[in-house]
Amino acid sequence: MDYKTFYEQHWNLVWTVVLVGPVALLTLGCILWPEVFWDNFVWKYLWGPIVADAKREPQEGITEGYNLVNTTVYALVLAVAVIGVWRAFTYLGIRVDGTYLIAMVPFVLLGSILRALEDASLFSRDGVLVYLFISPIIYMIIGIMVFGLTLWSHRIEQEARTHGTERGLMWAAFVLVSLNLPPAIVHVMAPEQMAAHAPYYLLPLISGLGLLALWWRSKQTGRLAMTDQVTMYGSVLAAFSLYFVVRWVRGDQWFEASRDLAAAELVIIPAIAALCTLASVGLFWFLTRRWGDAGRFIVPVSILLFASHFLDGAATYRGIDIHGYSEKHVLPSFLIELTGTALVMLPLKFLVVTLAIYLLDVAYRKDLQEAPNLAWLVKVAIMVLGFAPGMRDMLRLAMGV
User: What is the dihedral of CA 293, 295, 299, 303, to 10 degrees?
Assistant: First the structure.
């Protein structure tokens, strides 16, 4: 029996072991051998840096940021998540394509804005709410949210196809009400967890506009598409979180920032990313004369991947070389120290994205034709890994935090 046959016959057992096994092992180890599992692994490499990030100061000698161990662990978690989502979507008949990738953009913006607001101390350092907005926890929460909303939106699309658009819109409204509950609960029951609050009517108002836009879209297309729903949910939440950024930039700040506002970076960083993207497109367009597969590097999705990562590279360069920030990630820190400039991030990003596109769309293109959802989900992950930190760093610079 080969591994594929074994998996098909025992997939539930395999995923139980993959998902429950590591958690159970760490939990048991922390109880029975706390010095080994907690003190010298979980606290030292995983949880300690998160606490230090939340408190903005070292905790028992542990500093915030990434190390080789937690970087490896998070990479493994991401890999398992991508494969797990692929298997789930394939089983449920959910199709992933470029439209779905675009639908993820509002959620990436949401995560980036919330991370920037955490940097701006919107969430109390002495509370528990702040831990939900520390990376990688915030991105895990948003990932789980997107997964759940995708499943539910797929179900609503089927419901609307069977029982009419109005029935589907009713369920979409129910989802929006559910998304309104957590901010309302914090606003009413734990106001001290946040340094500032939005008007109570703002999120319901934005939700109503989002539902109206979804209704209009359904009239234009004749269907209540899953991707339209997911885009709407993410846009509503991102627009609500953006209120705090606008409030901060306009001068209504909840604490005195240690740096000056650098709103010009909202233009400079995207401009650098755009120039690098255009240069990459020009290079591969030139190469198409001699290498036909070079055309796969200049299709819209590939251009989006380049732009996402060049945004991250440009934000890192401006933040470190111009504004005096520091790098937290392992490989970028090594390369920046080696070269003496964060400009090295731009060619690094070019190489990483080029390699990813080559593997997905050239080297293993035929193999992945049997699993198109997997290729698209990997592209979604690549886009998020560039766009999310890039937007967060750009917003931090603009807000001076």
Answer: 90
Residues contacting residue 98 through CB under 8 Å, at least 6 positions apart: 300, 301, 376
Distance of alpha carbon 354 from alpha carbon 348, whole angstroms: 10
Per-residue pLDDT of the chain (401 residues; tens, 9 = 90+): 567 777 777 778 888 888 899 999 999 999 999 999 999 999 999 999 999 999 988 998 898 888 899 999 999 999 999 999 999 999 899 999 999 999 999 999 999 999 999 999 999 998 999 999 998 999 999 999 999 999 999 999 999 999 999 999 999 999 999 999 999 999 999 999 999 999 999 999 999 999 999 999 999 999 999 999 999 999 999 999 999 999 998 889 998 877 888 889 999 999 999 999 999 999 999 999 889 899 999 999 999 999 999 999 999 999 999 998 888 888 888 899 999 999 999 999 999 999 999 999 999 888 888 888 999 999 999 999 999 999 999 999 999 98
**Gap between the Cα atoms of 348 and 68, Å rounded:** 19
Q: What single letter denotes the amino acid at residue 174? A: F
pTM for the model stands at 0.92
Which backbone phi and psi does 273 adopt, to 5 degrees?
-60, -40
Residue recorded with tokens 């025992």: 10
Neighbours of 267 (CB within 10 A): 10
Residue 341 DSSP SS3: coil
